[in-house]
């Protein structure tokens, strides 16, 4: 098991307080922090750029916000929690009656201690989010309040982090996560931190990688759409991939299927869960969700899965201040990180080989693949197959169409063992690699 727990914990603590949104300095600061661990490129897409049916919005930044009561006491303070302010709130400074203010207050009666997380990206508006306890204790019907939001909404840009980890083949898998939530730990941040250390790990094994990995950190929806629009050609060729989110909660491990439930990425995820004896939950594909919504659209149809621990929508603290660093644990993220790594390690070796001798068997002895004395095949009783068996099976199945994962399923054997033997056959010029599958 790869152990990044300590570093995961450091980055959770470091990144949690930053005020992120779909644009703004908080996103840039977050991406710059990630550059300490991986050589991430930061891309800036300008406001007003048309990206398919969408337009990149103005950039939002916020310095301060509060509500004062009639005695001039700050009763709600952005500096205490950055989710007190509705994301993308416009500038406001005025005295206001409670009945007016009430229209701009959001709270959750069913979770009285939690501050809800709310956004207003595409409607110019302002608002405060407070706990129901605050609503009951700090506000009075006949009192006048002073509201102050020092925010800026101006032409700027939308920031994206991008890293291409190149393997032997130019064919790419996608790993995407979203960076747009402020101080929420399981939703958004856990996915960012997992993706960071997944990328760091892939860099350490880069010289062994068969395929290339496109790792992106985007604001949800608009960022994914902007990235697709600006990288249409490469994104249309992506093999399959992952949308990494909600991977750090105490709840159950599960996965959301890709749009084609028969695509093998779903099968590989289930295989890895079973290998790890994980009692998992299966969520069928749904057009509601995260950025798989964009990647699965007709023009792209990228099969992406999400392996999750306490999936979004499913846990009580979802989109509230209780989705914090007490709820999320570095060891949970590290556990799910290892599952992603195991899935990728299978996908990465899922190559199509082609036997160059389709007519009659290869004479193994001629290629130094057969024991010198006939008849005495060593049978490894721990395994089902001797090495000779596996060579023969590989030469039997690898026809330039069947991929190694298919072969491994038919033989009920791990892909790595087959991959190593297939490479040996390639070195002896008996097989070729046909990357397409
Ligand atoms: Zn969310």
Describe the overall structure.
There is one protein chain. The chain is 30% helix and 22% strand. An 8-stranded mixed beta sheet has the order 1-10-12-11-13-16-14-15, sandwiched between helices. The protein has a 4-stranded antiparallel beta sheet with strand order 5-4-9-6. It is elongated and about 100 Å long. It has helices at residues 5-15, 25-34, 98-102, 132-138, 185-204, 222-230, 232-235, 264-275, 292-295, 330-348, 387-397, 404-411, 415-427; strands spanning 41-46, 50-51, 54-55, 59-68, 74-77, 92-97, 105-106, 128-129, 144-154, 157-165, 172-178, 212-218, 241-243, 253-256, 281-283, 304-309, 352-355, 399-403, 431-433. It has 437 residues and is α/β, with parallel strands linked by helices. Zinc ion (ZN) is lined by residues 181, 187-188, 312, 319.
Descriptive keywords:
single chain, 437 residues, alpha/beta, four-stranded antiparallel beta sheet, 13 helices, 22% strand, binds zinc ion
What order do the helices and strands come in, and which of them pair?
Layout: H1 5-15, H2 25-34, E1 41-46, E2 50-51, E3 54-55, E4 59-68, E5 74-77, E6 92-97, H3 98-102, E7 105-106, E8 128-129, H4 132-138, E9 144-154, E10 157-165, E11 172-178, H5 185-204, E12 212-218, H6 222-230, H7 232-235, E13 241-243, E14 253-256, H8 264-275, E15 281-283, H9 292-295, E16 304-309, H10 330-348, E17 352-355, H11 387-397, E18 399-403, H12 404-411, H13 415-427, E19 431-433
Parallel strand pairs: 7-8, 11-12, 11-13, 13-16, 14-15
Antiparallel strand pairs: 1-10, 2-3, 4-5, 4-9, 6-9, 10-12, 14-16, 17-18, 17-19
Helix pairs in contact: 1-5, 1-10, 5-10, 8-10, 11-13
The structure holds zinc ion.
């Amino acid at each position: 098991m790869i152990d990044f727990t300590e570093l995961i914990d450091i980055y959770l603590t470091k990144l949690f307080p930053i005020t992120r949104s779909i644009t703004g300095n908080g996103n840039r600061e977050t991406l710059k922090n990630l550059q300490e661990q991986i050589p991430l490129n930061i891309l800036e897409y300008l406001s007003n750029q048309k990206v398919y049916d969408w337009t990149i919005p103005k950039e939002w930044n916020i310095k301060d916000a509060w509500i004062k009561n009639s005695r001039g006491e700050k009763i709600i303070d952005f500096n205490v929690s950055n989710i007190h302010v509705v994301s993308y709130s416009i500038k406001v400074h005025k005295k206001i009656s409670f009945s007016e203010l009430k229209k701009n207050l959001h709270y959750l009666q069913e979770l009285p201690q939690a501050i809800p997380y709310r956004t207003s990206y595409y409607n110019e508006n302002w608002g405060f989010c407070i706990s129901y306890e605050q609503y009951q204790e700090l506000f009075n019907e006949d009192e006048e309040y002073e509201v102050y939001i020092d925010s800026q909404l101006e032409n700027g840009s939308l920031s994206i982090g991008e890293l291409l980890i190149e393997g032997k083949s130019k064919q790419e898998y996608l790993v995407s996560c979203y960076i747009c939530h402020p101080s929420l730990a399981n939703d958004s941040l856990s996915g960012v931190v997992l993706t960071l250390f997944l990328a760091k790990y892939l860099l350490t094994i880069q010289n062994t990688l068969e395929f290339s990995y496109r790792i992106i950190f985007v604001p949800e929806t608009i960022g994914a759409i902007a990235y697709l629009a600006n990288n249409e050609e490469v994104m249309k060729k992506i093999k399959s991939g992952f949308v990494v989110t909600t991977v750090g909660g105490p709840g159950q491990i599960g996965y959301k299927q890709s749009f084609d439930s028969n695509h093998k990425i779903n099968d590989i995820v289930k295989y890895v869960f079973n290998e790890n004896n994980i009692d998992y939950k299966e969520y069928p594909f749904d057009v509601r969700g995260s950025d798989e919504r964009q990647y699965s659209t007709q023009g792209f149809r990228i099969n992406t899965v999400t392996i999750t621990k306490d999936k979004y929508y499913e846990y009580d603290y979802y989109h509230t201040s209780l989705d914090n660093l007490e709820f999320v644990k570095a060891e949970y993220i590290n556990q799910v990180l290892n599952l992603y790594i195991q899935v990728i390690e299978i996908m990465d070796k899922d190559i199509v080989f082609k036997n160059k001798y389709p007519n009659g068997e290869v004479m193994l002895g001629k290629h130094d693949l057969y024991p010198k004395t006939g008849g005495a095949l060593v049978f490894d009783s721990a395994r089902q197959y001797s090495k000779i068996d596996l060579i023969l099976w590989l030469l039997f199945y690898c026809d330039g169409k069947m991929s190694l994962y298919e072969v491994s399923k038919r033989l009920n054997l791990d892909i790595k063992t087959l991959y190593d033997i297939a490479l040996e056959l390639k070195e002896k010029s008996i097989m070729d690699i046909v990357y397409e599958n």
